[in-house]
Amino acid sequence: MGFTEDPYHLPPDKFPLYTWELNETSTRWDYLRASPDESTRRIHWTIWSILLFFVSGIIFLVFFSVILSPIRRNSFNLYLVYLMVPDLVFSFGCMIMCILNATKGDYWSIPMCYAQSVIFIFGVAGNAWMNAVIAYKLYEMLSFSQDFRRFKPPTRKQVTQQALAVYAYALFVASWGVYDTDWWPHKSMIMNGNACVPVEYDTASTVFFWVVFTPAAIGLPMIYVCYVLFTVWRRGLMPPAGRRRTISIYFFRLAVVFALLWFPALFLLYMIGHVVPKWGGWSGGTWSHMQGAVSAIVSIMKPDIHQAVKDLRLNISRDVQEQAEQDTSDQLNRLPAITDAESTKSAQHESAFEPNATEEALGKKTGDEEGPVSLFGRTTTTSCIGNSTNDENVHQEQQVKDVDDDNRSCHSEQLVWDSEWE
């Protein structure tokens, strides 16, 4: 089903064109919205789903390693946790949406389109502004150290408040794309048939996108991070060794990773996408989806983060091993009862083939009376008495009769017993 045939998609004025409908009169905005065929879209969404599955897994691993470790009490490690939240939301949310789209072969619905737009911008803006906040704190720490002033790290409460403020601002900027009013020159649409993001569609929207939206979402914070990096280098604020140097290099490296992955991705999405409409925009999206995993891997380079990940992995392995040992122990604890029951049955079965032992055992179950030995050397009368008192003895007597071909009937043996007593 095509985009224009599905009433649940965006209104007609927002329908993306198909790539085969483009011609010499098509504008740059048409190319940004042009969609490939359904089979190509399925391929795009399927690859993204698989990629984002592994990306989300890596982010979750590092995230919970820090959360479940005492190192989370360190304010800068808490910054890392809050820095990973936008990556988690972006990667996991997009994975779910790509799976749904790939299953349907088309975009799922208008609400999901808007949801993806919000998640996309929240992930970008939230990460960018958290990097700016961290860069500010690092610059403050290094400046104090250079001036021989005591630096007081932010408390966990302050870090949390800063992160929540960043998230609120990122959500505010992300909501711009869902304002469906005629006068608002900024709307989220299905771009290249793959993702619902803010897209240029006329001159006013292009101006707003590059002059207002892009600086507010990612431009200003990344410019500030670059300024901090340059200032630290120019003033020689980086200490030659020590904990401050380790922390600073660590977070600046994360900021560089973010810039190296997102700026080329946005360039491919909005600058090259109209040149190669079928794969250009998709390549930009693929490049951006890897940012969360690369940042998580880089974060493991910090010694205490690496140890936390290692501890979590060991704890999981130990828990699995202990659970397996417990299951084995439970099975072994149940074995003796089963073995005793089976041993009793086996002994009874074997005694059936040993007349003397069987009849001796049967004789004990008849009561306190003891009968004489029969003329044939067997107390077969015990079995007859047992026949009237216990069903189990009847079964054992039948086993004796089957084995011994010379066994007489119960009535005959009773006569023999009576004659002996006489």
TrEMBL record:
Protein name, as recorded: G-protein coupled receptors family 1 profile domain-containing protein
Top-rank taxon of the source lineage equals: Eukaryota
Annotated Gene Ontology cellular component terms: membrane
Instruction: Please give the organism.
Output: Seminavis robusta
Please verify whether the record's keywords include Repressor: no
Renumbered residue ranges of the record's region Disordered: 343-422
Q: Quote the biased-composition stretches of kind Polar residues, using this chain's numbering.
A: 377-391
Q: Where is the G-protein coupled receptors family 1 profile domain?
A: 58-271
Q: Where is the composition biased (Basic and acidic residues)?
A: 392-411
* Annotated localization: Membrane
Give the record's keywords alphabetically.
Membrane, Transmembrane, Transmembrane helix
Membrane spanning stretches? 45-68, 80-102, 114-139, 159-179, 207-230, 250-273
Q: What is its main location?
A: membrane
Give the matching PROSITE patterns.
G_PROTEIN_RECEP_F1_2
